[in-house]
Design brief:
This protein is α/β, with parallel strands linked by helices. It contains 15 helices and 19 strands. The strands form 4 sheets. Strands 1, 2, 3, 6, 7, 8, 9, 16, 17 and 18 form a 10-stranded mixed sheet that branches. The chain has a 4-stranded antiparallel sheet with strand order 12-14-10-15, with helices on one face. The longest helix has 20 residues. About 45% of the residues are buried.
Length: about 475
């Protein structure tokens, strides 16, 4: 791992003095960052919420920058479903010299979670730099990566860079509201050749900082859990509350939920989680580090499992989890309940289906009077993509140049990204951004979303170089 370069050192020094910055004083150290910042600002300030925004407007803005850089019109397309004109997606391609090599796909979503001005300290749709951070809705999730990918495509074109393989970019709409509409699903169904690739880079893992802002590890996501809600429901004739019986819909439902609470799905490791716990053992150290090593060596080691799964995040990475999230029961305070209903939210390990989990829940509650059903159609299911050296090696290579001594740690996401659709379609998808985040998550999906200025600029350099390494290989 090489020593810190002058440009990177300047970034870190500027970040260290960021408290002196004001919203009108950009933290910049290189001329090329000025143009990127303007692109990033433009994208962030376009409202792309489902309620009031337009992904199409954002896609057109980024398409205009690609065309201005010299991309032919045929290689830059904004595609919206005919019945959803505001849900546009941008797809673009930089042609490679060897068309027989499978393409590399750069994927980022441009839609964002809802945000109300009255709840935020700052206007959520004004791009603000303050105290060493960028603030706005989507400034991290996921417009940082969308801006970086667009910026890289512009730079590649201006540099007359000719990759060996095609570099495709898809900025898509609907990741945050996929039950309503999802751009990746739409493109796969109607325009698959435009995004067909050998593999894809996506959101899903960044870098981890400690409470002091020191880099702990760079994450790489390989695979993610499947989100599925199940409905538990039971009915009863009810009656007057002055004449109660032991048979009560609320009690019956409660008993079933307590069985779910007590049940642990089995421990399972895959490529990503095996590497995650192996490499985190050295970072964590102590008894927990030893337990991680023991668990990797023997997933049936009860003592190791008990210690590691005390951490709710680790527990969620190791097994399918199901938890009651909402309950609705009864119809009047002076009547016996005629119906009791609960939502049980499950996050299912990749490779397992909602049908399998439904059968297991029914076995666990062992009560035919509790009907278990799926709330919505299940998401696609696929095994996690393999963490081959051809994928992990370039990430480690580029990271070593920028962050000497910072380990690369693969992981499996316990949430969900658009990678689930691509993986299911046979396009292995890996989450890596090179953007290091604070331990509290930076307000993504919440109030006052933020990301460190230093992290964005470093992530921009990392992704630009990483894409070049992948695209130049045979």
């Amino acid at each position: 791992m090489k020593s810190m370069g002058g440009a990177l050192l300047a970034l870190i020094l500027l970040a260290g003095t960021a408290e002196a910055q004001t919203p009108s004083t950009p933290t910049l150290s290189r001329a090329d960052q000025i143009e990127f910042r303007a692109l990033y600002k433009e994208l962030v300030e376009i409202d792309t919420t489902l309620s009031n925004g337009s992904c199409t407007r954002a896609a057109e803005a980024m398409a205009a920058r690609l065309r201005a850089a010299g991309f032919p019109a045929a290689d830059v397309r904004v595609i919206a479903p005919p019945d959803r004109p505001k849900d546009g997606n941008l797809v673009a391609v930089l042609r490679g010299s060897n068309r027989r090599l499978p393409a590399l796909l750069l994927l980022a979503h441009i839609d964002v979670v809802e945000a109300r001005r009255e709840d935020w300290t700052r206007d959520p749709f004004s791009f603000i730099e303050e105290g060493g951070y960028f603030y706005a809705r989507g400034v991290a999730d996921d417009k940082a990566m969308a801006a970086v990918f667009t910026d890289s495509m512009v730079r590649f074109k201006r540099e007359n860079y000719r990759p060996r393989r095609d570099i495709k970019m898809a900025l898509t709409c609907g990741e945050e509201t996929s039950d309503t509409h999802n751009g990746v699903e739409y493109l796969l169904e109607h325009h698959r050749p435009l995004i067909q690739a050998g593999f894809a880079i996506n959101e899903g893992a960044g870098g981890r900082l400690d409470a002091q802002g020191n880099r702990v590890a760079l994450g790489v996501q390989a695979g993610e859990k499947v989100y599925q809600d199940f409905i538990f429901e039971t009915t009863n004739p009810g009656g007057h509350s002055s004449r109660p019986s032991k048979e009560n819909a609320i009690y019956r439902l409660s008993a079933a939920l307590l069985k779910v609470q007590a049940h642990d799905f089995p421990i399972e490791l895959n490529d990503a989680t095996r590497l995650f716990f192996t490499r985190n053992a050295a970072i964590t150290g102590g008894d927990m580090g030893a337990a991680m090593r023991a668990l990797v060596a023997n997933p049936a080691d009860a003592r190791a499992v008990a210690m590691v799964t005390r951490d709710v995040s680790y527990n969620s990475m190791l097994r399918t989890t199901c938890v009651a999230t909402t309950v609705d029961a009864g119809h009047a305070p002076n009547a016996l309940p005629q119906k009791a209903r609960a939502n049980v939210n499950c996050r299912i390990l990749p490779g397992h289906t909602p049908a399998e989990v439904k059968a297991e829940l029914e076995r666990v509650i062992a009560d035919p009077r509790i009907a278990v059903s799926l709330l919505a159609e299940p998401d696609p299911v696929s095994p996690p993509p393999p963490l081959m050296s051809s994928i992990l090696g370039p990430i480690e290579q580029v990271a070593a140049k920028l962050w000497p001594g910072v380990p690369v740690v693969p992981a499996m996401a316990t949430g969900a990204t658009d990678g689930r659709f691509l993986n299911h379609a046979g396009i292995p998808t890996y989450g890596v951004s090179g953007m290091f985040g604070d331990p509290d998550g930076g307000g993504a999906h919440g109030l006052n979303e933020r990301i460190r200025v230093r992290s964005v600029y470093e992530g921009r350099d990392f992704l630009h170089d990483l894409v070049k390494v992948y695209a130049s290989r045979r």
